[in-house]
TrEMBL record:
<dbReference type="Pfam" id="PF13621">
    <property type="entry name" value="Cupin_8"/>
</dbReference>
<keyword id="KW-0732">Signal</keyword>
<dbReference type="InterPro" id="IPR050910">
    <property type="entry name" value="JMJD6_ArgDemeth/LysHydrox"/>
</dbReference>
<protein>
    <submittedName>
        <fullName>JmjC domain-containing protein 8 isoform X2</fullName>
    </submittedName>
</protein>
<dbReference type="InterPro" id="IPR041667">
    <property type="entry name" value="Cupin_8"/>
</dbReference>
<feature type="signal peptide">
    <location>
        <begin position="1"/>
        <end position="24"/>
    </location>
</feature>
<feature type="domain" description="JmjC">
    <location>
        <begin position="129"/>
        <end position="263"/>
    </location>
</feature>
<dbReference type="InterPro" id="IPR003347">
    <property type="entry name" value="JmjC_dom"/>
</dbReference>
Length: 263
C-alpha cells in the first residue's frame, strides 16, 4: 500500500491524539483497557432527592440502592489522578491482600512499585488467592490528608460511624463473594460491576476463584431465579449494601475506589 502524504495524515491523526488525551484525563491517567458493560441493572436506583427517612425505611436494613448525584467528589477525584497520587504517595508502603474471600495473605510494597509493576489486568487463569489487590489496610496517618477531601455518602445508620477503605485495581480484578456489616462503595475513576445476594441466599462460588472466573464459569449456568442482584457503578454514583449481604466486585476498568464501612 502506498504511504499517504504526511499533510493528509496529520489532520486525521490530530483528532485521534486529542481524543486519546481526553480519554486519559477522563480516566485520571489510569485507564489501561476496558471490559464491556452489562446494561442490566437489578439494583434500585435513587437520586439526590432521596431523603434520610426514606433511606431508613426502604433500604438501610433491607435492600441495596445506588444513589446518584448525592455528593460532589470532583475535588477528591482531582487528587486521585495517577500523577497526583504517585507524586504524593509514590514512596509510601501500601498493603496488598490476596483477592480471595478470606483475604489471607498480605504483602507490603511501595505504592510506586505497585502502580508500575503490579497494577495489571486480571490474569483470567490466576486464582484469587494468587492475585494481589490494593484495597483496605490503609495507613490513615499517611493517607489521612487525602481522605479528608473525600465527601462521604450522605446517610449513616444510627449508632454507626464510617471507616474508609481505599483501593486501586486493574481491569478484570475484583473481590469474590464475601459479607460483613453495611457500607457504601464509590468509584472515583473507572467502573465497577457489583453482584449481591441477600444474607439468606448463599451464592455458588469457590472462595479462591476470582470474580472474573466466576463470571465466566458459574454466572452463565445460573437459572434466572438464582441470579444475583447486579449493576455497574460509575463516578458520581454510590452503592449502599445492607448488613450481611453477600457481594462480589469486578473492575471493568483500572479503577480508583473507596468504600465507607458503617460499624
Ligand atoms: O471495591 C471492591 O472491589 C471491593 C469492595 C468490597 O468488597 C467492600 O466494600 O466490601
Amino acid at each position: 500500500m502506498a504511504a499517504a502524504p504526511r499533510r493528509l495524515l496529520l489532520p486525521l491523526l490530530l483528532p485521534l491524539a486529542w481524543a486519546a488525551g481526553c480519554a486519559a484525563s477522563l480516566g485520571g491517567g489510569w485507564a489501561a483497557g476496558a471490559l464491556p458493560e452489562e446494561e442490566r441493572c437489578t439494583v434500585e436506583r435513587a437520586d439526590a432527592s432521596l431523603t434520610f427517612p426514606r433511606f431508613l425505611q426502604r433500604f438501610a436494613f433491607s435492600r441495596p440502592v445506588i444513589i446518584r448525584g448525592a455528593t460532589d467528589n470532583s475535588v477528591f477525584q482531582a487528587l486521585c489522578t495517577k500523577d497526583k497520587l504517585l507524586g504524593a504517595f509514590g514512596d509510601r508502603l501500601v498493603r496488598l491482600s490476596t483477592a480471595n474471600t478470606y483475604s489471607y495473605r498480605k504483602v507490603d510494597v511501595p505504592f510506586q512499585e505497585y502502580v508500575e509493576h503490579l497494577l495489571k489486568p486480571q490474569d483470567p487463569a490466576a486464582l484469587g488467592s494468587d492475585t494481589l489487590y490494593f484495597f483496605g489496610d490503609n495507613n490513615f496517618t499517611e493517607w489521612g490528608p487525602l481522605f479528608q477531601k473525600y465527601v462521604p455518602p450522605p446517610f449513616r445508620i444510627p449508632g454507626t460511624r464510617g471507616a474508609y477503605s481505599f483501593g486501586i485495581a486493574g481491569v478484570g480484578s475484583g473481590v469474590p463473594f464475601h459479607w460483613h456489616g453495611p457500607g457504601y462503595s464509590e468509584v472515583i475513576f473507572g467502573r465497577k460491576r457489583w453482584f449481591l445476594y441477600p444474607p439468606d441466599k448463599t451464592p455458588h462460588f469457590h472462595p479462591n476463584e476470582t470474580t472474573l472466573a466466576w463470571l465466566h464459569h458459574t454466572y452463565p449456568t445460573l437459572p434466572p431465579g438464582e441470579r444475583p442482584l447486579e449493576c455497574t457503578i460509575h463516578p458520581g454514583e454510590v452503592l449502599y449494601f445492607p448488613d450481611r449481604w453477600w457481594h462480589a466486585t469486578l473492575n471493568l476498568d483500572t479503577s480508583v475506589f473507596i468504600s465507607t464501612f458503617l460499624g
